[in-house]
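Predict fold of Peptidase T; 344 aa.
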Amino acid sequence: MAKYEELIPNFLSFIKENTQSNPDSETIPSSQNQVEFIKKLANMLSDLKLNDVHINQQSGYVFATMPANIDDKVPTVGFISHVDTAAFNSENINPQIIENYDGKSVINLDSAGEYQLDPRVFPSLKKYQGDTLITTDGSTLLGADDKAGVAEIISMLTYFRSNPDVKHGTIKVGFGPDEEIGTGADNFDVADFGADIAYTVDGGPLGDLNYETFNAAAAKVMITGTDVHPAEAKGIMVNAIQVAMDFHSQLPDYDRPEKTSDRQGFFHIDDFQGTVDHAEMSYIIRDHDRDRFEARKRLFAGIANQMNRDLVLTASKLNLKISTTIWVKSWLSIRKSLKLLNKQ
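Predicted 3D structure, encoded as tokens:
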């Protein structure tokens, strides 16, 4: 019998539910599907007989407490994960389970072999020889970011409930919305959560603990062009696609995710839509150093301001929106969590 026998079934159940966040929403949480999923998690926490299970109205998080089963005074430890998934197809997720992976074979996600996980492209696959892997069929995201964290925390709580001889201090847990769009952290109610220290269970290799955060901003560039017939375009047309390309070309060439590592910052364009008369680009701006982060935002806004000055005699313009938040990324494996709690 597996030590955490409900871990994979819970995970597979969780990822079937579309809980994508909505960056254009003004509600908290940003999507109704997150609201409904968090209610289900609240019921699961109640079934586990946790105390003070409630949904915080400020943030949309569900909080709960597992009381200590020791008399010693120890810090209250919290574990947090988010329920929303990234902006990619989240419907009809079809997970595949590869048991005892050999660490070298190409994994065909779909029957036609159009989508693959190849160790030559993803060398980290070699680390998982002998492990069980869960993948999608290539047409959707999997939702492991961060349904895996949710399932792990639920399994930890179930383990402690089933093994009262394993001693631990007071444990706080929180499952929340809108991490992918930044607003979840903005609205998190620290006082209501009530932990002395806390870990976000979210991705990373088994046993890996990150204790440092980065500064992040989301930026959206909206360009209004001037569309006329190409035969009459000279001196009149302003092609919004070309303006977008000109904007992007002024960003530092090597400050991109694919050319940076560790604490190096970057500008990351993650969406582009365009026609001659209208174009939009979405960016992530990120840097560990706060001063360099602010300088990146100034550079970004400065490019937009200068291009608007260049367009002043036309009917075209750039609109720029930069929203800033600090995304805390701390990862702790469930095994390491249990070891830390057992030591207390």
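Residues 325-344 have pLDDT under 50 and may be disordered.
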